[in-house]
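Lab meeting prep.
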Amino acid sequence: MLTAFTIKIYQLGAALLVLAVDWIAAQDQDLVRSCAAYKKSVFEETSEFSLLYPNAPIIYKTRDTCTSYTPLIIGGGPAVPKEFPHAARLGNRNEDNEINWFCGGTLISNQHVLTAAHCLFTENGAVNVVRLGELEFDNDKDDADPEDFGVTNATVHPGYAHPIIYNDIALLRLSRPVTLNEV
């Protein structure tokens, strides 16, 4: 398929800047449409005006329509040991061997964890440890058998631009393959 572009060339000292202007504008429009759709799904916009005072300013209000946190899915129950072996806890292990846990992910192969790209852009440091098999974070007597894995590589979606939420996805490569046990 052939696509026509308007090319603009700018002289910048000894360098030339060549832009496919129509393509860039189309990308911007797609982003604007995506942002508008997301905004409509999360926020409710209303306007208030006066019938008695026609020259009164119109007041625009935006209300966050996201529901509050619910600890369980409707009709759900607490997880049991070894029920979700693919659930991953992400953290940073410092030089004192202390781990600061701050994000989550999902094991998608024997050596890869899918997570949100924003997890890799925090003040907590780099994600360098993944824990699998955890049930209760603060309980060592819950019949779970968690195992920690190092992280050798983190790949962020090329379209992700922190802190914007679009393309907020990343892939972590574990330092060794995961062996899933029989339950």
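Slide two material, second protein:
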Amino acid sequence: MRRVALLPGASAPFLLPGQRTEGKVPADDCGRDDNKTETGMTTGDGALKYRRLLVKLSGEALMGQNGYGLDTAVVDRLAADLAGALAEGCEVSVVVGGGNIFRGLQGAARGMDRATADYMGMLATVMNALALQSALEAAGAPARVLSAITMPTVCEPYVRHRALYHLERKRIVIFAAGTGNPFFTTDTAATLRAIEMGCDAVAKATQVDGVYSADPKKDPAAQRYDRLSYSDVLAKDLRVMDGAAIALARDNHLPVIVFSIDEPGNLIKVLRGTARATVIHG
């Protein structure tokens, strides 16, 4: 068995990039014992193109047709899709936005201090993450929320090696509170966490089946792209993600898949590489 070193004073193993955990880790900050194997989930080993995937969900996706807050039916459907991906054998992580509750940029536009507004937006993502965790566990999929802003009575703090351990134990990891810093979007947080987790790709869930040259709901002549390079996205200002997120993906050779989450079961097609989607890479 490979030995994993402990840093002086550390209670859990320090991992080098790409190193996987073995053995036990201490009980987490939510009182759960991570040395117990989850039960009730069977995982398949089908022909998956992506075996470790981070899914970016916007806050707007969680509110459905409501003008604000959460649509529990939509949250349950999204949880079922994520649970299905886990059952297929994929190691799944999620970054959720908070725009259905509060958006930092909107607060700043109304005269609020930008950093304060961004922190409020991060707290909104924690609320969404907890709702998604509840729906996932109701669907039979073990899930953990890890927040970049520490709140130990609510969820676990974000620690990279702990997140990796949860993934390897076939738990869905939900990253909340963005990067923990103002002035960064949850798209950038999704790209960052995907790189830290060693994901094969980041899948951005939207309401359309890929990237278009313009909003297809407003412009019937909008051109749809099957594949794009990172440079194309930046040069054409397509605004799939913010520039920082795309540049981070480019510098780390992380594919970005843009797909529609409105079609039930579409996430499984993404995993198999058969979804109608836009792939950004190269």
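Talking points for slide two:
DSSP finds nine helices and eleven strands in the chain.
The chain has one domain: 53-211+222-280.
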